[in-house]
Write a structure and sequence with these properties.
single chain; 623 residues; nine-stranded mixed sheet; five-stranded mixed sheet; 28 strands; glycine-tRNA ligase activity
Length: 623
Amino acid sequence: MEAFRQAVVNTLERRLFYIPSFKIYRGVAGLYDYGPPGCAVKSNVLAFWRQHFVLEENMLEVDCPCVTPEVVLKASGHVDKFTDLMVKDEKTGTCYRADHLLKDFCKEKLEKDPKITEEKAAEFKHVIAVLDEFSAEELGSKIKEYGITAPDTKNPLSAPYPFNLMFQTSIGPSGVSPGYMRPETAQGIFVNFKDLYYYNGNKLPFAAAQIGQAFRNEVPNPSLISPRQGLLRVREFTLAEIEHFVDPEDKSHPKFSEVANLEFLMFPRQDQVSGQSARIIRLGEAVSGGIVNNETLGYFIGRVYLFLTYLGIDKERLRFRQHLANEMAHYAADCWDAEIECSYGWIECVGIADRSAYDLRAHTDKSGVPLVAAEKFAEPIEVEKLVITPVKKELGLAFKGNQKMVVEALEAMGEKEAMEMKATLESKGEVEFQVCTLGKDVTIKKNMVTISKEKKKEHQRVFTPSVIEPSFGIGRIIYCLYEHSFYTRPSKGGDEQLNVFRFPPLVAPIKCTVFPLVQNQQYEEVAKRIAKSLTAAGISYKIDITGTSIGKRYARTDELGVPLAITVDSTTSVTLRERDSKQQIRVSIEEVASVVKEVTDGLNTWNDVLWKYPTHSSAASED
């Protein structure tokens, strides 16, 4: 695996798919530049993402700023909770993720210590299983108990402390308006919900989508996150996110039947807990059997599977893993990760989560703007509504400056709590009531609040929508695609191994190359005519008129993943060669651009065109 990974990375960097940023200044860990072929692959992946999701699902695409005011991320919970627990090398000051160090220690003991007892092995497995639930104190205690030191220096480590992963900045020259570089694109969609709902004709369900840069001040993990890890974990990265808003009482999907018969590797929660492996499950059965929470979540799992496999991800090395109970946020109904296996193991590349109504409620509470939807009734219906009316004059006399907080707490009561308070007030005249914002109980008297139930006719039901969120880490998907597409094959003489990327035409950085067989004025003129017809057809190409052998030129473009090569060896027809099979056919100069377009656009396969045109064999070719 190490040798394979090194071959892939060396090829990617040598052919400028991506390189470390600021290389002449020794670079910065976690920052990378995409070179010309890398930009083209990324652009093709994003274009297909837009086609597969935004266009086919009729989504509303938005583009929001990367700089986000602090108040927005305070409401979403990122300011207080978007943290990792860190430890420091006490002598050098180098930082490490505390959970990563503990996990790596346990895994290494399990894999490499021949003297480990059954009891100790069970302990290490338990630590790995519950790692996400550890507090700072528990992590620190385990690190101390196991004698874990800094990986590079073996120096002692500090106690764990929280580190916020967001890059902080200030908005405007005064510095009084704090902000952050966004850690995800989703919040821009949530805060625009009201306008998007109106734009959509005040109808649910609908989905909004956004592609953009996100920023996380990740700390390298010595076992996984290092400058050599390229696109797997970086500090600035491209996210493509979808927020599908749906009625929480109806999470069915009209197109679920289109994906219900898909079968692929799934790793449900109960299988993970019981020590089983991922297994092939039909998506329809997973939803009907309650493994996947609802049809809309299931529909997006199916669409994500199709997206990744169309890109060229090996379906045998793709699985959907359900989050364990300790991984999920308290408000989430269900969460799944699309994980792709590469040389580093199983890597989370897409998260698909039913986030319930948490995000819209959080922004409603903080902003005071109701982010809600409404279902209009055909006929008005009579409902019994709880009415809580605080008597502000009496509350003001009793609580003075704290009146507002007491009023808000009373109005926020649920039906059960309110009716219990009503009964106690009627029987005893007063009741002890906890006001969380004050951090204490207060005495509420009968004259301070009236609680009743009233019958009302309603013409609509107002509710906060739930959201299903598929979130795609584009850089991770692309890196896994590089590994899944890479292979080597012997040269004609058998004296060296040649590198090949078997990209599907859909994502290939260049669709075809044009080679005059020899340096000849006539052939070069024909090559220019073909190039013009390729441009008119919207096909990316590269002309190579160097004097090197045709075999070497083929090898150079195979290494870039170019699916087709046109060799100009006459003035009337050309040779068209397919990358992986190395088969060649004869096509007229007038037809060649349209044949290339049919294959690269997916209208025909190579096998479809193979029988239409005569095959070609030449002593001048690599074969």
